[in-house]
Amino acid sequence: MINRDPAAYTAQLHEKQQRLTELLAPFGAPAAQVFASPREHYRLRAEFRLWREGGQQHYAMFEAGDNRTPILLEQLPIAGEQINALMPRLKSAWQASRELSRKLFQVEFLTTLSGDALITLCYHRPLDAAWQQAAEQLAQALGVSIVGRSRGKRLVVGRDHVQETLTVAGRSFTYRQPEGAFTQPNGEVCQHMLGWACDALGARDDDLLELYCGNGNFTLPLATRVRKVLATEISKSAVHAALANLADNAIDNVALVRLSAEELTQALNGVRPFRRLAGIDLASYDFGTVFVDPPRAGMDPDTCELTRRFQRILYISCNPQTLAANIAQLNDTHRIVRCALFDQFPWTDHMESGVLLERR
């Protein structure tokens, strides 16, 4: 349950700020700018298992490490208001339809600040034309897209993505967010992250290298601040979404290649060529800044060494421990000039943070 006491939230956020301060203190970091979250209805994604009790299927969640003791739910206060509005309507629909409920074991909601919604229904059975017809009726009734998943098969009713609109520095950017792909769960805090990153980068007349670009979440607004961008991402679905997002927003100064950060490091070091870089003239770039938003493991040592070449390193982290480890590797050549705490996951110990490092 959410603690609705504002003082409790403030205390927890202060504790996170203190932890980040302690982690970055060895590197002489300035005070962190803190971006708070709404205390409830902040999650735009939610995933539920279904649990049968009293002859009915209920939304259920489980404590970490315990998949036998369900917590049955009718509402989820941390989830967005749109998810909470859809939950009882979807439950009524599957209770009234054998085609929708038979061997349904998991439900996922994906929504946006702009009001779009997609529901994924997961089954332990093949999906057929009868299910498709029932799903089409449900999608129309709820005003959403629906994706049905069973082993080796995916059926889409409507679109397989949602459309989001985020406003950064007074400009609106539209994003296709595919079903099953990573998106930032806290839309309000995501806008703060994008705004902070753009402000930290500033308006520049050189180029940006972006690693781990995903669906272009940061790429779109950052591209408006530099001459041109070379962005990399290894996930095919994320690359397709990023290319669509660049086109939808008429951003034409970004070259996107499907390479991992490790592969790009090898390419820039001349270790091996990559056909996926055909047509990309690396020598034409005047990189001043590298932007990284790595997974929880942080940057591997070789990629970390690659970032050392740049005048500026703009780093968004979902794991402050690996952030500190990477900064320790870079500390002899770069210093932290700005840092921030983004409370993407209130009421948890999780922290998202950002730092701007500049060459000493």
TrEMBL record:
It is an enzyme of class 2 (transferase). S-adenosyl-L-methionine binds at Q184, Y212, N217, E233, D293. GO terms for biological process: tRNA methylation. It catalyses: uridine(341) in tmRNA + S-adenosyl-L-methionine = 5-methyluridine(341) in tmRNA + S-adenosyl-L-homocysteine + H(+); uridine(54) in tRNA + S-adenosyl-L-methionine = 5-methyluridine(54) in tRNA + S-adenosyl-L-homocysteine + H(+). GO terms for molecular function: rRNA binding; tRNA (uracil(54)-C5)-methyltransferase activity, S-adenosyl methionine-dependent; tRNA binding. Keywords: Methyltransferase, S-adenosyl-L-methionine, Transferase, tRNA processing. InterPro entries: MeTrfase_TrmA_AS, MeTrfase_TrmA_CS, SAM-dependent_MTases_sf, TrmA_MeTrfase, U5_MeTrfase_fam. The keyword Transferase applies. SUPFAM superfamilies: S-adenosyl-L-methionine-dependent methyltransferases. One of its GO terms (cellular component) is cytosol. It comes from the Bacteria. Its EC number is 2.1.1.35. The active site is at C318, E352. HAMAP family: RNA_methyltr_TrmA. Dual-specificity methyltransferase that catalyzes the formation of 5-methyluridine at position 54 (m5U54) in all tRNAs, and that of position 341 (m5U341) in tmRNA (transfer-mRNA). Belongs to the class I-like SAM-binding methyltransferase superfamily. RNA M5U methyltransferase family. TrmA subfamily. PANTHER family: TRNA/TMRNA (URACIL-C(5))-METHYLTRANSFERASE, TRNA_TMRNA (URACIL-C(5))-METHYLTRANSFERASE. This is tRNA/tmRNA (uracil-C(5))-methyltransferase. It comes from Pseudomonas pohangensis. The gene is trmA.
